[in-house]
């Protein structure tokens, strides 16, 4: 179907790394700016959602931590195109930062080459949903931690101290500082 766009709409919790690999561009937004996209979402999911904003929350309305980290890493290392809304960086309706918010904050606040050097230069090889060190770099490492039954992305200094603490992360990311 040359000249057409193949639009795939999924719940964030159902997105896989294969979906990311197959996509030319990954787009997500907690705000729907186009009634046609809302209609397509309702049609494909058999729902009747009328709200134009649904904040990301940990769990079912969020990317799995492993998938979110994979998405960020293919953006940082291979240039995968990602589009998101600035509202995606905020607190969810559960008053916590989702994995989507965490990668959006990282994308907008830290140069991706610097991030890879500091936190993700070496892949540690942990996979399959096991909590632990996923990547490490010159300054620290990335864990996927279990916090109250939710797997979330966290950044740590080599000392084991959290490098980017939520919600203070916004201030540090906007200034480009890494807490050392």
Give a description of the structure:
A hairpin with an 8-residue loop joins strand 3 (122-123) and strand 4 (132-136). It is globular and about 50 Å long. By secondary structure, it is an alpha+beta fold. The chain contains 6 helices and 6 strands; from the N terminus they run H-E-H-H-E-H-H-E-E-E-E-H. The termini are far apart. Helix 3 (65-78) packs parallel to helix 4 and helix 3 (65-78) packs across helix 5 (112-119).
Fold topology:
Blueprint: H1 17-22, E1 25-28, H2 35-45, H3 65-78, E2 81-84, H4 99-109, H5 112-119, E3 122-123, E4 132-136, E5 140-147, E6 150-157, H6 169-175
Parallel strand pairs: 1-2
Antiparallel strand pairs: 3-4, 4-5, 5-6
Helix pairs in contact: 3-4, 3-5, 4-6
The class by helix and strand makeup works out as alpha+beta
Number of strands: 6
Distance between the termini: 51 Å
The number of helices is 6
What is the succession of H and E elements? HEHHEHHEEEEH
Radius of gyration: 17 Å
